[in-house]
Specification:
Elements: H1 2-9, H2 12-19, H3 23-41, H4 47-70, H5 87-107, H6 109-118, H7 122-128, H8 134-144, H9 149-178, H10 185-239
Helix pairs in contact: 3-4, 3-10, 4-5, 4-7, 4-10, 5-6, 9-10
């Protein structure tokens, strides 16, 4: 029931209101991030490591951009690039999360997924509070995702399903062309990859990020409300 209530708070109409006239900017933010990651892959020797570093760095900036958009702010694309002095902390957080996912994932898949879901809000927490320690950022994310993990998991599955749908359309196009002529391998790859990439970049990623930002904002509001209630209770006890 709690999951249903959380999803109702960020329904389709709410998303439309938050992103009205801004969807192109959300897509462009992801395209900018993806471009830098791809460029990292073409660097000799350090290609994979550099791509991971760039992806970790850009994720925080993109999530921050999406969060500001959800908050009805008008962020500039420069805000995607956070201060480089935080790069080491970003990498440490990413390494800890990835290592935990790998360890738990090797033991059992489900604990690995749950571990990853614990830190779904880490990028948002870091973006708004970069001065916090790594332990505080991870602990805050874990606390804020409490009761919301299944909702995040369902959203992720939905976005993956959209990407698979696009890939299946590409496969369908391949078989359609194959009825009339011999389809070259490169064209087969294009028919499958292009629709999938377009679906991910134009729909899946922005939609997942904006829903995640909505859950984060709701969780933050709930936490603040709980703190306020506790303060009032303490005041009443003190007066009595």
């Amino acid at each position: 029931m709690q999951i249903v209530e959380e999803m109702k708070k960020i329904d389709t109409l709410s998303i439309q209101n938050k992103t009205k006239g801004k969807w192109f900017n959300l897509v462009l933010a992801n395209v900018i991030a993806a471009t830098f990651v791809i460029l990292g892959l073409f660097m000799p020797l350090l290609s994979f490591a550099l791509a991971v570093i760039v992806a970790s760095y850009m994720q925080v900036g993109v999530y921050g951009y999406v969060l500001k958009t959800y908050q009805n702010a008008s962020p500039s694309f420069e805000s995607i690039f956070i201060d480089f002095k935080w790069l080491l902390k970003v990498l440490c957080i990413k390494i800890i999360v990835m290592a935990g996912m790998l360890i738990w994932g090797l033991l059992l898949i489900i604990p690995g997924i749950i571990y990853a879901l614990n830190y779904a809000f880490a990028a948002f927490v870091f973006y708004e509070n970069p001065q916090l320690s790594i332990e505080q950022i991870l602990a805050t994310s874990k606390q804020m995702t409490n009761g919301k993990k299944f909702g995040i998991f369902l959203m992720a599955l939905g976005m993956i399903a959209l990407a698979c749908l696009a890939a299946s359309i590409g496969v369908g196009l391949y078989y359609l062309f194959a009825l009339f002529f011999n389809v070259p391998i490169f064209l087969t790859v294009i028919l499958i990859v292009v629709p999938t990439v377009l679906m991910i970049m134009l729909v899946s990623l922005p939609l997942f990020e904006i829903y995640l930002a909505g859950l984060y904002e709701n969780s933050k509001a709930s936490t603040q409300e709980q703190v306020t209630i506790k303060k009032r209770s303490v005041k009443k006890v003190t007066k009595n």
